[in-house]
Amino acid sequence: KPASSSSSSSKAAVSASSGSKASSASSSGGTQSSALSSKPASSSSKTSSSNAAAAVVPASSGEVRAAWISYLDFNTILKNKTKAEFTANIGNVFDNLLSIGLNTAIVQVRPFADALYPSEYFPWSSTITGTEGQNPGFDPLAIMVEQAKKRGMRIEAWINPYRVRNASSSAALSANNQAQIWLNEGNESVVKTSTGIFYDPASKQAQQLIINGVKELVTNYDIDAIHMDDYFYPTTDASFDANSYNAYKSGGGTLALADWRRENVNTLVRGIYSAIKSINSSVKFGISPQGNMNNNYNTQYIDVAKWLSNKGYIDYICPQVYFGFENAAQPFSSTVAQFNDMIKVSGIELYVGLAPYKLGCTDQWAGAGKTEWQNTTDILARMVQDARSNSKYAGFAMFRYGSMFNPAADVKSQVETEMANLKAVLK
């Protein structure tokens, strides 16, 4: 996954090698909207890559226009805030999204095996108070659902199923965190590595815990979808799940390690889909994998092609196509088309994940296209127009809120112009 810059300047290079939900220095969370024009702004000294622009394709009436609101954003708008303060902040966030024509918020309610709502299965998130397990005295998710619905917006609950902690996470696990309980017991359903703490995708106990959490969300909240992103297996190292795999082989299993890992993820995905539909068939289930198919299959151990060729896995795919039109290895248009063409059954939609966090930055692994995100003022608008030409296309999502509405000072003007030009194609 691309490393994020720790520099205070957003001009630092960002990677396009896999398109993960990486934090960038230019995308700190915030609630203040920039002044946005209702008319497309001129490109001034910037140049548009007009040779890559597609013919204008009008939006369908049901186009999903989403932004991811991550725990990085919540660190600003939620952490250590009162109920009234958070209600005002999230209302402002939603108003900002609406102001440029977006209609959907994908809110991260389980970033680290925790919850931004009262849960029977997961502890209160440290994202709210700074301390995992501490009750804030209000329900952030209930507030978000209420504020979204009163504005006529869609809202999706975004979970990270396997991740408990990153190596860089300093927040202690609460005593009632199931991961901590299993660690204390020596239960290998949770694995501690040099890169963090993770639920073992092979564990039936871990799978059921994750499914129970999904059922809780769908039962208790008026959400439009459950959303997962690109964090699946945390490593290719065979030692990560050696005991689980050896037990599988001893029981007569014949799959190679990589195929076995992919089937473990498939089992969870099918289980989540089935659980959602058993409660409310109108709630969708979508996954946002990396835009790099090789990484998906061989390092994340997810079989996207299988999900898109069979019913019972997902309702939509939202690849993180965090590549420019001029990316030397993986150009935007052909990558979107690749995912579109993989959808072989009816009822599965294509959303396209876009990367406003790259605006103004050098795209480190893009080859000849590494300056594309610096030398444009309308790349996001052109990407939306280009994506609309795909037969399975149904919408897009922007990573992330802070990159769009609270950018670093050195890219602020460019981001404002990009947002105005995006708004113009969302009318």
Q: Please, could you describe this protein's structure?
A:
- The structure is a single chain.
- 34% of the residues lie in helices and 12% in strands.
- The protein has 427 residues and is α/β, with parallel strands linked by helices.
- The longest helix has 23 residues, at 257-279.
- The chain is globular.
In short, what is this structure?
With 427 residues, this protein is of the alpha/beta class.
Q: What is the domain total for the residues?
A: 1
Q: Helical residue percent?
A: 25-40%
Low confidence ranges = 1-20, 22-55
- Give the N-terminus to C-terminus distance in angstroms: 34 Å
How does the overall form come out from the CA principal axes? Answer: globular
CATH A-level architecture: Alpha-Beta Barrel
The rounded Rg comes to 21 Å
Instruction: Specify the biggest β-sheet.
Output: 8 strands, parallel, barrel
CATH superfamily: Glycosidases
**CATH fold field value:** TIM Barrel
How much strand? Answer: 5-15%
The overall average pLDDT, rounded, is 90
Topology:
Elements: E1 64-69, H1 71-77, H2 83-99, E2 104-110, H3 126-129, H4 140-150, E3 154-159, E4 163-166, H5 178-185, E5 190-193, E6 196-199, H6 204-220, E7 225-228, H7 242-250, H8 257-279, E8 284-287, H9 293-298, H10 304-309, E9 316-317, H11 332-342, E10 349-354, H12 379-387, E11 393-398, H13 401-405, H14 412-424
Parallel strand pairs: 1-2, 1-11, 2-3, 3-7, 7-8, 8-9, 9-10, 10-11
Antiparallel strand pairs: 4-6, 5-6
